[in-house]
Structure formats: structure tokens, C-alpha cells
Amino acid sequence: MDSTRDLLIALARRYAFADLGALAPDAEITEVCEFGHRLLSLDAEDFAAEARVVPADLRRRARACHMPQTPREQPRGALESLRPAYGLLLEVIAARWHRRELSTMIATVHIASEYLPLLAFEPQLGHAGDPARWPAGLSATGSRFGVIGDRECDHTKSEQSATNRTLRVSTEPSEGWRAYFDRQHSQVAGALAVCVATCRKPCTAMDWIAPEPRADLQARSRTALAFAETPLVRLRHAAPVGHGFGVPSPEEVLDAWDRSRAALDKNAVGSAALKDDGFPLPGLASLFSAIADAPIEPSTLLAGVSEHIVTLLERG
After folding, report:
1. Which top-rank group of organisms is this from (predicted)?
2. Nearby residues of 89 by Cβ (< 8 Å), 6 or more positions away
């Protein structure tokens, strides 16, 4: 019996929630494992799902990372602030690294890169890119934001379509809202960064931000765009090798990150990636903090779920 319990505890400490859930001795532990697995797999649609046996603090912190499934759902979770979600992303990246699940880890890094511009915009917006709360200035006279087919705009066709949709999606049914987040919201994130950081013919879309904070936002957004083009993120698109897909080794990941850090070291924001902050990819947490203009540290959600399961197992 002790050896079985020791095995289950080892699985809990390794965050092997799916495996542990299949072997769990009772329904309560199974439910907690399902909750933990949703966090580890970044199933943000279901973070707010009822899990009454999970401690209230863990449920509250998970809801802060939840993506609302309707235009009027309250609380707004990750649309209120992306900082808790990025804390979870960092914790998941670290967990995948330690478990040597490197393909999944790189996929998580890729997700982080897609929404990073919204993390940069959060101080100016006062939220994390909530389509129900876009500033009126985005659609001011002379703005090309969301105008489809405007050849003066630096947005791609897909970005123009996404920005056009984001300005009206809050009035759509829940099905349209969810489809927008599945396919287009990350493109809006990139489009906003283009507007403030790289547009060759700026329109009035960013005039609602005063010059000084706009200059700061430009540097942080430019770095967010640069991160998406780094060797680390590009590992997500590695070419097929043999009969399967290439899985990077730890050495290849660290080498790609070293080259990424050098490429990002172009300004005070990007140079944050050079810090030795104790994260498995040294400087990644510091880089996210610099882009957010706020402290972003790995969360302890997975660790909290693990410890709670261990308590339940030891009690049984």
C-alpha cells in the first residue's frame, strides 16, 4: 500500500495529473487531477469550470487566467489582465522543461509570443485587449484600424480582417465571440504592435496615447514583435525529419535561446532577456516583465494543485 501511495505522490509532484487521475483512489482526487491537467494543458476555456473539491484560492487564481466565453461574461479574467496568465505560462514552460517535454514547451513559448503585444498594451488600455472595451480613439477620424482593403495600412489582409472583426465582435452571439478568439484575437495583438511600433505610414489609430507613454509602448511593442521572430520561437516551425517531426534537444533549445537573447539586446527592454533570473530559460521571465512594464513571475498554481493532491493522498 505504501509503495502504491509513494508512486501516486511521485506522479503528483511531477505534475503528471492525467496519469494520476486515471489511477486515483477516489473521485475527489480525480476531480483535482482534472483541474490540474486543464492548467498544465492551458485549457483556458475551462479554467472557470466548477471544481468544488479544489481549494477556493486555487480556483480563484485559475479564473484570473480564464478566457470569457461570452461577450458579457463576468469576471473578465484574462481580458481584464494577462499578467496572471503569463505567470501560468511561465510555470508551464518551466514544468515542461523539467519533464523534458520540449515540443510542448516550445508550443507554450509560441502561445506566449502571440499575445505578448497585448501584455505590452495593458498599461495604456487599462485592460488586456477586451473587444468590449476598445478605446474610441482606435476608430477616430483618419484611422485605418479595421478598414479592410486600405493599401496605405501596413496590416496584412488577415490582420485587417481581424481588426475589423474585433471592433464589432462584442455585439455578436456567443458562438461568434468564441470563433473570433479561436482564430483572430492573436492577429489583433500583432496588428496593434504594428500600429505603434513599425507602421511606415502611421494614421490616427494611436493618437489616443500621449507622446511620452507612446514612445515607451513603442519600445515594448517592438520587442514583443521581435520575440516572435527569435530562433527560440522559430523552433515551433521546425522542418520534418525522417518519418516524424524533429524534437529539439535541451542543448538545441538553450542554443536557440542564447541566440534569441543576443537578437533581442537592441534596447533597454530587450536587454532584460540577458538577466540571470533563475528561470530555466534565463531571462525569459525578466523579458516578459520588461514588456509588460510590471513584474511577471512564474505562478505557483501547478505547485499548489500538486501539494493539495499530496495532502489528500497522505490523509487517505
Report:
1. Bacteria
2. 42, 108, 111, 112
